[in-house]
Design brief:
By secondary structure, the protein is of the alpha+beta class. It folds into 3 domains: about 1-60 and about 310-349, Malate/L-lactate/L-sulpholactate dehydrogenase, four-helix barrel (Hypothetical Oxidoreductase Yiak, Chain: A, domain 1), CATH 1.10.1530.10; about 70-180 and about 240-295, Ribosomal Protein S8, Chain: A, domain 1, CATH 3.30.1370; about 180-225, 2-Layer Sandwich (Wheat Germ Agglutinin (Isolectin 2), domain 1), CATH 3.30.60. The protein has 11 helices and 12 strands. The chain has helices spanning about 5-20, 25-40, 50-60, 85-105, 125-130, 185-195, 215, 230-245, 280-295, 310-320, 325-340; strands spanning about 5, 70-75, 75-80, 105-115, 135-140, 160-165, 175, 200-205, 210, 220, 265-270, 325. The strands form 3 sheets. Strands 2-3-4-11-5-6-7 form a 7-stranded mixed beta sheet. Helix 1 (about 5-20) packs antiparallel against helix 2 (about 25-40) and helix 4 (about 85-105) runs parallel beside helix 5.
Length: about 350
C-alpha cells in the first residue's frame, strides 16, 4: 500500500488539477479537500477521486476554471449558481454566504444549483462551526445510484446529510452520513482493494442482494440504510437538495457540454445564540458531550465515541503516519498524470 505524507498528496493533487485546466487557487482548494477527507478517515472522498475528477473534466461534466456566484439574494437567503465548477468551491461559497447571513439575522439558508460532487459533506458544517455557527447541509438530486425501499431500480442518489454543532471545546460535534447503507465512494475503495461489501449494501442488476462491488458498476444499485428509515431520510434530502433549490431548472451547461447530474445543495446555518446566550449554549454542548462520554460501554466496546471523534483521531494518526491508498488507486493517479504530462511519482520526493 503506497503511503505518503499529506503534504505530498496535496502537491500531487494540485499539479494534476492545474494540468487539467484549473488555476492554482482552485487546484489547491480541490486537492486540499480530497487530502483532508483522507486525513479524517473518509478515503471514499479522498485522493481516490483525483482520476475520477480529471475524467469529469475531460468528459465536459466539470468546468475546471469556473467559479460559483450568487444569482438571487435576500437578507437571509441566497441561490448560488455553481456553473459546473468543482463542487468543493460551490459548497464552500454557499456555506460562507449562509454564515454571513446567520451572523446578521440569526439564520441563513442558501441553495446551490449546477453543483457537481462536493466531496466530504462534513467539511462544510465544520467550516460553520469554526465560525461559532450551527449548520445543516444536504446534497441531493443525482438520481442514478440507489433504489428506494422495496424497489429494484435506481431512483435516488446517496443523498447525504451533515450537521455541525460548536461548543466551548476545540472540536465541534459533526454528524455526516449518506442515507444509503454505504457511500458510492466506499464501493470504489472496496473495488480498488478487491474486498467484498457488507451484506445489505447493494443489489445487483436483477435486484438480488450482493456483496460484489462489480455488481454495482454492472447495473446494480445502492440500498438505503435502516430500510424504510434511511429511505425516508433520503427523500427528505431529495426534497431539500433538489426540489427546494429547483436544481432541475438549471441543467444547461455554460460550455455546451453534457449535464453530469441535476444535483442541488442546501445549506442552513443557525446562530446558536438565537434562543439563549451563546456562552450558555456552548457550555451546555460540552456538558452534554461529557455526559454521553461517561456512559458505560457495552461488552466488547472500548468506549462511547461522540460523532466526529473517530475523524479527529484519524487525523491525528494520519498526520503522523501518512495516508495510504490501494495499489490500484496509486496506479490510476500515476496513469492520469502521464496522460497530462505530469510525473506524479517525482512530486514531493
Amino acid at each position: 500500500m503506497p503511503t505518503f505524507s499529506a503534504d505530498r498528496w496535496r502537491q500531487i493533487g494540485r499539479r494534476v488539477f492545474e494540468a487539467v485546466g484549473s488555476p492554482p487557487d482552485i487546484a489547491a482548494r480541490v486537492a486540499d479537500a480530497l487530502v483532508d477527507a483522507n486525513l479524517v478517515g473518509h478515503d471514499s472522498h479522498g485522493v481516490i477521486r483525483i482520476s475520477q475528477y480529471v475524467g469529469h473534466v475531460r468528459e465536459g461534466h466539470v468546468v475546471p476554471d469556473a467559479r460559483p456566484e450568487a444569482i438571487e439574494e435576500s437578507e437571509t437567503t441566497a441561490l448560488v449558481d455553481g456553473k459546473w465548477a468543482f463542487g468543493q468551491l460551490t459548497a464552500e461559497h454557499a456555506t460562507r454566504l449562509a454564515i454571513a447571513r446567520a451572523k446578521r439575522h440569526r439564520l441563513g439558508a442558501v441553495g446551490a444549483v449546477r453543483c457537481t460532487h462536493i466531496g466530504r459533506l462534513g467539511e462544510y458544517p465544520a467550516i460553520a462551526a469554526r465560525e461559532g455557527m450551527i449548520a445543516f447541509v444536504t446534497a441531493g438530486g443525482f438520481i442514478g445510484q440507489s433504489a428506494p425501499f422495496g424497489g429494484a431500480e435506481r431512483a435516488l442518489g446517496t443523498n447525504p446529510l451533515s450537521w455541525g454543532f460548536p461548543g466551548e471545546s476545540a472540536e465541534p460535534m459533526v454528524v455526516d452520513f449518506a442515507t444509503t447503507a454505504v457511500a458510492a465512494g466506499k464501493i470504489q475503495v472496496a473495488k480498488a482493494k478487491r474486498e467484498p461489501l457488507p451484506p445489505g449494501s447493494i443489489l445487483d442488476a436483477e435486484g438480488r442482494p450482493s456483496t460484489n462491488p462489480d455488481d454495482y458498476y454492472n447495473g446494480g444499485m445502492l440500498l438505503p440504510f435502516g430500510g424504510h428509515k434511511g429511505y425516508s431520510l433520503g427523500m427528505v434530502v431529495e426534497m431539500l437538495g433538489r426540489v427546494l433549490t429547483g436544481s432541475d431548472r438549471y441543467t444547461e451547461h455554460p460550455r455546451g457540454g453534457p449535464v453530469y447530474e441535476r444535483s442541488g445543495t442546501f445549506v442552513l446555518v443557525l446562530d446558536p445564540g438565537m434562543f439563549r446566550p451563546r456562552q450558555e449554549y456552548a457550555a451546555d454542548v460540552d456538558r452534554t458531550l461529557a455526559r454521553i462520554k461517561k456512559v458505560r460501554p457495552a461488552p466488547g466496546v472500548a468506549e462511547v465515541l461522540i460523532p466526529g471523534e473517530p475523524e479527529s483521531r484519524a487525523r491525528a494518526e494520519r498526520e503522523r503516519a501518512g495516508i495510504g491508498v490501494a495499489d490500484a488507486t496509486w496506479e490510476s493517479v500515476i496513469q492520469v498524470g502521464r496522460e497530462l504530462g505530469v510525473d506524479v511519482e517525482a512530486i514531493g520526493r
